[in-house]
Amino acid sequence: MQAQDRRLIRLRACLEEGLPLVSEPFKVLAEQTGLSVEEVRTWIGHWQHSGFIKRFGLVVRHRRLGLAANAMVVWNLPEDRVDEVGRRLAAEPEVTLCYQRVRRLGWPYNLFCMIHGVRRVRVEAQIRALIQRHGLEDVDHQVLFSRQAYRQRGGRYTPEEP
Fold this sequence. Notes:
Arc Repressor Mutant, subunit A; Alpha-Beta Plaits; 2 domains; four-stranded antiparallel β-sheet; 5 helices; 4 strands; 40% helix
């Protein structure tokens, strides 16, 4: 593997860990990878343009902010409704994640939504309001509140260095 390839793999790995919280994060990334600041910016721009990096975003540690009532609502929607309902629920301000998954044997749910709140009673009220607002009263669903957080981080996509 060439040195440039190793530097780019290292840059990808550093980005997966998150930007350093300093006034010049690209300078730190350059120092960590052996690239110049301009190369770091160029590669990040290239990866964004190509779709390899979809966005830079903030990962909020919601429990540290006092959001201790965290519910995953799972829905058993007919296949012909899942896209439409998923788009509508994803547009709701209280829904922080909304995605479709393949049904599994013994687990009929195909749409998953996450709602965070300070108090469980408030989150339950938000869920009831969503159900009513979107006409989902007759849709089989379950509300799964988190009991313990063991880990929260972004995905890792960069292979380990040889």
